[in-house]
Each structure stands twice: as structure tokens, then as C-alpha cells.
Specification:
By secondary structure, this protein is of the alpha+beta class. Helices cover 37% and strands 25% of the residues. The chain has 10 helices and 11 strands. Strands 1, 2, 3, 4, 5, 6 and 11 form a 7-stranded mixed sheet that branches. A 4-stranded antiparallel sheet has the order 8-9-7-10, with helices on both faces. Strand 5 and strand 6 form a beta hairpin. The protein starts with a strand and ends with a strand.
């Protein structure tokens, strides 16, 4: 076993417009850092949390990262091994960037590395999803899976975690603008209607299938045509007053498409090539500067590493 490991787990963008709760991708930054070390006491404990403004509990049962790590240790029969976790939050809460998912993914990967469990990331996934469930009450992997595995993922079934890792086109870039306001995932889920009209269902399924096909075919035009959300975005954008203005501005840049990142308030856009991505980045910056809203903008290629040691 190792005595000490330090892990980075990235932020993620869920839904990708046409794939509510079943599509997600990892970005290069920001992300959370998790430190795991062996200790002389029995069992798991959280010794330190930074970057959370005192909001996160040290209680294993109530902490996303702690609960995920505990579940992994129970699964592999090492729950009595002495382990201390440090959680260093490097990304905002309620941002639509998978903050709790990054912590959960980083924690299970750190435990696996520390205790030399010699298991695959897929074998860690169920424990990580249980950890994130502590934060938003839902059992879904559209943030956790990309944060842990990296790349772009499709969740065929959340209950069984039947997950497909999709191809990542070489010139695909993602830009994410995070305005410093908070929208909690639970609240953003509560406003959603349980009724989906037949024509919405047909359009959304067409876009979802075409988006996946576009990734496999390396067809950026098909990806672009598919990035339309007929069900979730129209309901959630009311929580983001400036969404329509920013979206119309971004579309004029000839980005591939744009929508709400997860539950918001972050907005993401996909672009073909570094030059277009940089243009999108600058427009996002200018937009929020003009609104006089504190913000961060992140632009990168798709992060295909996921959780990893640093």
C-alpha cells in the first residue's frame, strides 16, 4: 500500500443539451483535489476540508466524498483500515459543473490508489454515484462518470450504470462560463415537469441519436444540428435571466452549440478548433463583464483522463 496519495478529479458538463441525465463530458479545469493517507486509527475519517467556506460537514455519512470513499471500502472489505481524507475544493458549489461529483470521483480513486485495490474505475463508479446522491438526492452518473472516467459518456441506464464511453473528436473544444450565482441541483430538478409531449420526445430522441452518431462519424455539422434541447432547457432557463441573450450571441460565433451546463447557472458551448473556442471564450468574458457579474470562463479540449494522481 501507499502511505499517501493526492488525486485530481475534474469538473464536468452534464446533459450536453439533448441528453438530460444521460450525457456528460469532463473538462480540463477546474476540479477538486483529494488527499488520502494511512493512519493509525481504525476506519475512515475526514481530517480537513478547504475551499468550502465552512459549508461541508466532516461527518462521513453527510459528506459526498466521505460517503463515496466509505462505500468503496465496505465493498472491498477494508472498512477498518485507517484512512484520513483531505478535501480541497477548487470549484464552486451550485455551479452546474459537477462539484459534488468531482469530490466523490476523486475520493474513490484516491482510496483505490492508497490501498492498492487494483480495481478498474468502472468498479469504483457505483460507490462514487452513491456519494453524489448524498448531495442532490438523485442516483445518476452524468457528472460522476466523466469526472471519474474522463471523456464523453452516455449512460444507457443509470440504475445499472450501463455506461458507454463515446469517441472524442480531435478538434472538439468546450467553453464554460460560470457566473457567481448559485442554483442548487435539487431546486433545478424540482421545477421540471413530469409531463413530456410526444412531439418533444420524438425531437429529443432524434437529436440524442444524431449527437452520438456525430461523435462516431467525426461529423461536426451533425453534432451542431443535434445540440437542441426541447424539454429541459426551456424549463430551466427561467432561472437564468440572461440565458437567451447569451445563447443568441454565442450562436453568431458559429460555435457548434450551446446550452445550460447541468442544472446551471453555468453555460457551455462546444466549438470546432482552438480559434473558434477562443472566440467563444472572449465573448463569454465580455458578456458577463458588461453585466457586471463576477464570473469565470474555462476553455479546454475534452479531458480524457478523468480522475488521476498528481
Amino acid at each position: 500500500m501507499n502511505d499517501f496519495v493526492k488525486v485530481f478529479a475534474p469538473a464536468s458538463v452534464a446533459n450536453l443539451a439533448c441528453g438530460f441525465d444521460i450525457l456528460g463530458l469532463a473538462i480540463e479545469h477546474p476540479g477538486d483535489e483529494i488527499i488520502a493517507r494511512k493512519s493509525n486509527h481504525s476506519g475512515l475519517r475526514i481530517s480537513k476540508i478547504t475551499g468550502d467556506n465552512g459549508l461541508l460537514p466532516l461527518d462521513i455519512e453527510k459528506n459526498t466524498a466521505g460517503y463515496a470513499a466509505k462505500q468503496l471500502m465496505i465493498t472491498h472489505g477494508c472498512q477498518n483500515v485507517g484512512v484520513e481524507l483531505e478535501i480541497h475544493k477548487k470549484m464552486p458549489f451550485g455551479s452546474g459543473l459537477g462539484s459534488s461529483a468531482a469530490s466523490a470521483a476523486g475520493a474513490v480513486f484516491a482510496i483505490s490508489e492508497l490501498l492498492s485495490l487494483e480495481i478498474s474505475k468502472r468498479e469504483m463508479l457505483a460507490s462514487a454515484v452513491l456519494g453524489e446522491q448524498r448531495a442532490d438526492g438523485a442516483y445518476h452518473a452524468d457528472n460522476v462518470a466523466p469526472a471519474l472516467l474522463g471523456g464523453i459518456v452516455l449512460i444507457r441506464d443509470n440504475t445499472t450504470l450501463d455506461i458507454i464511453e463515446l469517441p472524442v473528436p480531435e478538434q472538439l473544444y468546450v467553453s464554460v462560463a460560470h457566473p457567481e450565482i448559485e442554483i442548487l441541483t435539487k431546486e433545478a430538478r424540482n421545477i421540471l415537469s413530469s409531463v413530456v409531449l410526444l412531439n418533444q420526445h420524438v425531437k429529443q430522441n432524434g437529436n440524442l441519436g444524431a449527437f452520438v452518431a456525430g461523435l462516431y462519424k467525426n461529423d461536426y455539422e451533425l453534432i451542431s444540428r443535434s445540440m437542441n434541447d426541447h424539454i429541459i432547457e426551456p424549463q430551466r432557463k427561467k432561472l437564468i435571466p440572461w440565458f437567451d441573450d447569451l445563447k443568441s450571441t454565442l450562436i453568431k460565433t458559429e460555435c457548434l452549440g450551446t446550452s445550460i451546463s447541468g442544472s446551471g447557472p453555468s453555460i457551455f458551448a462546444l466549438s470546432k478548433g482552438a480559434a473558434k473556442a477562443e472566440k467563444v471564450h472572449q465573448i463569454m468574458e465580455s458578456f458577463f463583464q458588461n453585466l457586471v457579474i463576477e464570473h469565470q470562463v474555462y476553455t479546454s479540449k475534452i479531458n480524457c483522463k478523468g480522475a488521476h494522481r498528481i
